[in-house]
């Protein structure tokens, strides 16, 4: 891992003559080292350097997409900004670090969301606008493109892999398999999706969504994935405002099982967390995932079986 000071030094290479006055590390780097560097005008800049060859390749694809997304912002197609690269610096091991101005806003506080025309509705409009972008943006960046059947199969494979760990409650596995085998739920129109939306990656200020970060998981896939985090964690009355604004922003949304799949995606995120722990050999992650899976199993045993019951009309 690179130190914040090393990243600050890269900033002076990315922008010749850059005067770094302060630097602090940031935790939101994933497979990259990241730091926020402040210049003499008190402007904050983000420096991001991949830790591996694979992370470097992923960053290059993301940069192509970010350029296209920035064009969409400038054309008024997206109501939020995205990171815009202002300079790059070569890395000794290959690849490059990138630098961009820190976006305005603070991470969305889901527990403080209120119903009505404020941040909740802005979230719905922002995600709806993203899902209206042409899938060609993803294809041109070399990022994954799935049809509905292929994406359902991908989810089935994840559940199968999680089952092989022996750490997922049997009743929870049956619940997931029943929903994944219910073909009616999986007749959706794939859209551009961010793929990793969370409170840390969505910035807000003054009731508006100001920026969206971390586009490395973007793909053409199930729009429900980008709604899962909100349906799971936001207050229910705010969720109603989010979904209403989302549906109004979509031009041809006919997806009666959108909410069902979004809730399922929220559950399957725990299976992916478990698999991450198993693959990386991280016992703490495994223990955390098992604890949450057991809790989810208890909660879902108390819920009635819904089957193919439409919940969202477009």
Structure overview:
It is a single chain. The protein has 314 residues and is an alpha+beta fold. It is 46% helix and 16% strand. It has helices at residues 4-14, 53-74, 119-131, 136-140, 148-164, 170-180, 225-233, 236-249, 258-280, 283-301; strands at 20-25, 32-39, 44-50, 85-90, 96-101, 106-107, 191-193, 202-205, 208-212, 219-221. Strands 1-2-3-5-4 form a 5-stranded antiparallel sheet. A 3-stranded antiparallel sheet has the order 6-8-9, covered by helices on one side. A hairpin with a 6-residue loop joins strand 1 (20-25) and strand 2. The chain is globular, with a radius of gyration of 20 Å. The model is unreliable at 307-314 (pLDDT under 50).
Please give the alpha-carbon distance between the first and last residues.
47 Å
Largest sheet: spatial strand order? 1-2-3-5-4
- DSSP summary: helix tally: 10
The class by helix and strand makeup works out as alpha+beta
How would you summarize what this structure contains?
This protein has 314 residues and is α+β, with helices and mostly antiparallel strands. It is built from ten helices and ten strands.
Tags for this model:
314 residues; alpha+beta; five-stranded antiparallel beta sheet; three-stranded antiparallel beta sheet; disordered C terminus
Secondary-structure blueprint:
Elements: H1 4-14, E1 20-25, E2 32-39, E3 44-50, H2 53-74, E4 85-90, E5 96-101, E6 106-107, H3 119-131, H4 136-140, H5 148-164, H6 170-180, E7 191-193, E8 202-205, E9 208-212, E10 219-221, H7 225-233, H8 236-249, H9 258-280, H10 283-301
Antiparallel strand pairs: 1-2, 2-3, 3-5, 4-5, 6-8, 7-10, 8-9
Helix pairs in contact: 3-8, 5-6, 5-9, 7-9, 9-10
